[in-house]
Amino acid sequence: MNPSEWRAYLVTQESRSAGRETAEIVETALDGGVDAVQIREKGRSARERYDLGRRLRELTADADVPLIVNDRVDLAAAVDADGVHLGQSDLPAAVARERLGEESIVGVSASTVPEARAAADAGADYLGVGAVYATDTKDVPAETNGVGPERVATIADAVDLPVVGIGGIDAGNAGAVAEAGAAGVAVVSAITAADDPRAAAAEIREVVGDER
Questions:
Q1: Residue 8 CA from chain centroid, whole number
Q2: One of 17, 104, 109, 189 is an active-site residue; which one?
Q3: Is position 138 annotated as part of the catalytic site?
Q4: pLDDT tens-digit readout, 151-173
């Protein structure tokens, strides 16, 4: 479950899943070889995410793939997830680790070198860097919506942590992100909205692996 070994990281969002349920997408993507799954599900209630999280915990455990919860440390604990991914306005990484335990995985979003260094100093296990390419799957400030692979390279050189590129990434541009120094890429629509999520996951993983 070392983030340095993650190549394809699925971030869930049922509203971007072409009318299909998230559990169906995750099960299929796991068959395609995704290395980590993050429950995001913006716009859904805490209870809905809890119920979904319990189901995804079963699927990911069976596949021996880590389950990460976006933002919510309490929800991560409630569904026995492997860790949490925190934004710059969420709880500090050190607090999340205190709440979840030393064995938990704590990821932090970073768009600048100072943010990346602060996350590393706070004990983060990996960084989510982006938005690499312009995206509308979440609200991203204009100045960080499309920082490019160059920013990935700058941050990867600045800290001794695995970097996962996120934002507007698909099989066509994932290679450039990996070549810039990312251990892997996190994607939403490139898998969730694909006609064949299994094939999409496998292709992204292969592209990233070829560039590592």
A1: 9
A2: 109
A3: yes
A4: 999 999 999 999 999 999 999 99
State the Cα–Cα distance between residues 57 and 69, nearest whole angstrom: 11
55 is catalytic: no
Dist CA 90 CA 43 (whole Å) = 17
109 assigned to active site? yes
Q: Which of 151, 69, 134, 137 is closest to 104 using CA atoms?
A: 69
40, 72, 198, 205: the active-site residue: 40
Q: What local confidence, expressed as pLDDT, does residue 7 receive?
A: 98
pTM (2 d.p.): 0.95
Helix, strand or coil, per DSSP, at residue 90: coil
- Cα angle 51, 58, 124 (rounded to 5 degrees) comes to 85
The pLDDT of residue 146 is above 90: no
3-211: which CATH topology?
TIM Barrel (3.20.20)
Predicted local distance difference test score (pLDDT) of residue 211: 77
If one counts every other C-beta atom within 10 angstroms of the C-beta of residue 111, the result is 23
